[in-house]
Amino acid sequence: MLIVARICRNFTKYFNYIIMAEVYQAEEIKLLNEKVQILNTTFSELKKEINKAIIGQDYMIDRLLVGLLGNGHILLEGVPGLAKTLAIKTLADAVDGQFSRIQFTPDLLPADVVGTMIYNVKENDFKIKKGPIFANFVLADEINRAPSKVQSALLEAMQEKQVTIGDESMQLPKPFLVLATQNPIDQEGTYLLPEAQSDRFMLKCKIDYPNFEDERKIMQMVSTAHQPKIKSVVTLQNIVEAKELINQIYLDEKIEKYILDMVFATRFPSKYGLTDLKSYISFGASPRASINLAIAARVVAFLNNRAFVIPEDVKSIAKDVLRHRMGLSFEAEAEEITSEDIVDKILNKIQAP
C-alpha cells in the first residue's frame, strides 16, 4: 500500500508539473502572439508596397518574404516577362536595401561575381576590388547560363555569408538574399546547377503566367506614364527584429516529427508505405531540407499572424523546399514523373498531426 501511495503521489506531482508547464507555455505563446501581430503589420505594409509594381504574382511575393525573413535564398523558374527581376528590385526599394544584378553568361568569370585583387602601381601593392555580390539583394539572372566554376563562386557567399578574396575573408551585408532565375524553355547552352549548389537555395519556386484580369492591369499600368513610385516602408532593423521573433515561434514536437517524416520519406519511401516511389528517387533530400522546412514554416506562421506553427504551414511550403532536393531516376523521367508528383504522394500518405 505504501508503494502504491508513493507511486500515486509521484504521478500527481508529475501531472501537476505537466499542467504548470502547459499553462506557462500557453501564456508565453500568448505574449509572443501579441508581438507577432504588432510587428507583422510592418510586413503587411511591405507586401502592399510591392503590389503597387507587381500585379498577379502574390505567390512569388510571399516566397520572397519567406526567403528574406528566413535568411534563405530563392531559385525562381519561369518564362521571361513574369517580373522576376522587377520583383526583387521592388523589394530592395521597399526595404531601402542595396540591390545588385549579375547577368550570368557563358563568358562570366568568378572574379566578375565576388571581386578580385588589383595591383596598385603607386602603392606597389595589391588592392581588393569588391564584386557585385556585396549587396543586400543580389539577382543572379539566368544562373544556369554560366559554367559551374562561376556558379560555385556563390557557394561560400550563400552558405557562410562571406567572401574570401586572396587571404582575406569579408562579411557580406545583412540581410543578404540571392534570387536566382532560370528559364525552363530554352535549355540550349545552359549548365545544370550541381546538387551542392541547388541545396543552398531555401526555396525553388515555379512562376506561372498572371490571369486575364491581372494581365489587363499590368498592360494598363505599363502603357501609361503613371508608373508607381516605391517608397521605403521597412528598415533593415525591422528585418533583424522580425528574424529574432521568428526564431521564437513555437514548433511543437509533433510538427517536428511531421517534417522529419516528410524528409525521410524521400530517402526511405518503403518505410512509409510508398514502395512505388522507390524506383523514381535516386537520392533523397538532405538535412538542409528539414532545417529549411522548419524555418520556412515558422516564417509562414509569422506572416499569418501566429506565434505557433500548424501542419498547414508546413504543407503550404513543402513543395518549394523539397522539389529541388531530390534526384529523379531515369525511370521517373521516362514516365514523366516530376518531383512535385512525388511530394504530393508523400503529403497524401503521411498523416498530419
Write the layout of secondary structure elements.
Blueprint: H1 2-51, H2 58-69, E1 74-77, H3 84-95, E2 99-103, H4 111-114, E3 115-120, E4 125-130, E5 137-141, H5 148-151, H6 153-160, E6 162-165, E7 168-171, E8 177-182, H7 195-198, E9 203-206, H8 212-222, H9 236-246, H10 253-267, E10 281-283, H11 287-303, H12 311-322, E11 327-328, H13 330-334, H14 339-349
Parallel strand pairs: 1-8, 1-9, 2-5, 5-8
Antiparallel strand pairs: 3-4, 6-7, 10-11
Structure, described:
The chain has 353 residues and is of the alpha/beta class. It has two domains: 53-234, Rossmann fold (3-Layer(aba) Sandwich), CATH 3.40.50; 249-353, Magnesium chelatase subunit I, C-Terminal domain (Helicase, Ruva Protein, domain 3), CATH 1.10.8.80. It contains 14 helices and eleven strands. It has helices at 2-51, 58-69, 84-95, 111-114, 148-151, 153-160, 195-198, 212-222, 236-246, 253-267, 287-303, 311-322, 330-334, 339-349; strands at residues 74-77, 99-103, 115-120, 125-130, 137-141, 162-165, 168-171, 177-182, 203-206, 281-283, 327-328. Strands 2-5-8-1-9 form a five-stranded parallel β-sheet. It has a two-stranded antiparallel sheet with strand order 3-4. Strands 6-7 form a two-stranded antiparallel ribbon. α1 (2-51) packs across α2 (58-69). The chain is globular. The chain starts with a helix and ends with a helix.
